[in-house]
Amino acid sequence: MPAYIISDVSVKDAEAFQRYRTRAADSIARHGGRYLARGGPVEPLEGSWTPGTIIVVEFPDIERARAWYRSPEYAAALAFRDAALSRNLILVDGISGPA
């Protein structure tokens, strides 16, 4: 069953963000993840949430998503995170088959 990492990002430093983004993307691919959304336009439809940049990554399952987040490959990206961005990040378990 797929799992999703969803991130609401505000970029603080564009140069640091590029270093973070490159390393994060490489680590995601190594753990079987793929981007479903990566910073396109956001259109709030209900409520008061006004997100910045939304990123959605799909992993084959929740265990692979957790392994990615705790991996040494992703740790290399995290070295740039605090300078690069602020964010809210969540892990959501998906569903299998028709909803």
What are the defining features of this structure?
38% helix; alpha+beta; Alpha-Beta Plaits; 3 helices; single chain
User: Span between N and C termini?
Assistant: 12 Å
Question: How would you state the average pLDDT, rounded?
Answer: 94
Unreliable segments (pLDDT under 50, ≥5 consecutive)? Answer: none
CATH topology description of one domain: Alpha-Beta Plaits
Shape: flat
Rg over CA atoms: 14 Å
Range of helix content = 25-40%
Number of helices: 3
What portion of residues belong to β-strands?
25-35%
Description of the molecule:
The protein has 99 residues and is of the alpha+beta class. The chain has a domain at 3-42 and 68-93: Alpha-Beta Plaits (2-Layer Sandwich), CATH 3.30.70.100. It contains three helices and four strands; from the N terminus they run βαββααβ. It has a four-stranded antiparallel sheet with strand order 2-3-1-4. The longest helix has 17 residues, at 14-30. The radius of gyration is 14 Å and the shape is flat.
SSE layout and pairing:
Elements: E1 3-11, H1 14-30, E2 34-38, E3 53-59, H2 62-69, H3 72-84, E4 85-93
Short synopsis of the structure:
With 99 residues, the protein is an alpha+beta fold. The chain is built from three helices and four strands, in the order βαββααβ.
